[in-house]
Write a structure and sequence with these properties.
elongated, five-stranded antiparallel β-sheet
Length: 118
Amino acid sequence: MIQLSGIVGGKTPVKVGPRKTLLLQQIVIRVKKGRKLALNNLNFLFNNEAFAIKIEAQPSPGKFVARGGAGDLTPNKVLFNNNTGEDQTIFLLVSAVNTSRTSTELSRSDSWRMTLKR
C-alpha cells in the first residue's frame, strides 16, 4: 500500500487558464511483472468547484478524474496493469483541471490524499 498526499502551497494562488490542466505532483513507481497499480481511495479539496482532480499513470492509458472540487472517494480503479513480463517503472501524475470557460485560481491550501495498491 502506498499513501500519497500533497498541497498546492506557495505564497500566492496559482492561476489556471480555461480548460487547462496543471501538473501538481509527479512520482515514479515501480510495478513488478504480473502486478497492478490501483487507486483505492482519494480524498481531495479544491476551494473552487470548477477544478477536477486527475490521477494518471504514464505511459499507460489508465486515469481517474473526479469533478466538483472536493470528494472522499473509493474508486478502486486500476491505473496500470503490468502484463509485460518484466518489472516496469511508471510515472504517477496528479493534476488539477480547470473545467470552466474562464481563468480561475487554485488556492495555496488546496490538497489531496490517496492510497494506492500494487
